[in-house]
# Entry
Amino acid sequence: MKELIKRNSSGRKVLILFTVTIIVYLVMLTITIPKVMSYSGGMNLLDMMPAGYDAEYANNLLSSLGEQGRNAYLYIQLPVDMVYPLLFGVSYCLVLAYFLNKLGKTESFLFYLCYLPLFAGLFDYLENFGIIAMLNTYPSNPGFLTQITNVFSVLKSFLTTIYFVILIICLIVFVIRRLFLKSL
# Structure
C-alpha cells in the first residue's frame, strides 16, 4: 500500500484528484445538502454533526424531514455522498504523501499518517450505511442503529480533524523550509 501511495503522489495526479474531490464536495454543499435541509425545518443533517447526535435528535430530524425530505436524503444526498468518501480518502491521502515527500519524510513513521483520511472515508461509508438503514426503517429505528451510526459520525469527524491539523502543520513546515532555503 505504501508503495502505491508513493507512486501516485505526483503533483499532477494529486492536483487532478483533489480538484475532482472539491467539485463533488461543492456539489454537496451547494445543491444536495441544501435540498435536503429545505425539508428539515433548520435541523442539521446527521452527517453534518461532527460532535454527534442522539436517538431523539435523529428521530426528530427524520420526522421533520417528512417523506419528501427523507426521499431527498436517500435518493439525492446519499448517492453523491457514496462517491465522496472514496475521493476524500484517496485524494487527501495523496495530498499528505505529496507534502511528506517534499519534506523528505516518506520513509519515516509520519508516512503512516497518510492513512488517516482513508480511515475517515471508511467511517463516512459506515455512517452513510447507518443513515440509509435509519431512513429505510423509519419510524421504527432501533436505538442501537442510531448509536452505532453516531459513533461512525464522530470517528469520521475526529479523524478528519486530526488529519487537517497534521496537514496544516506539514504545510507550515513546507513553507518555512521553502522560505528559509530561498534566503540562503
About this structure: Residues 2-183 form one domain.
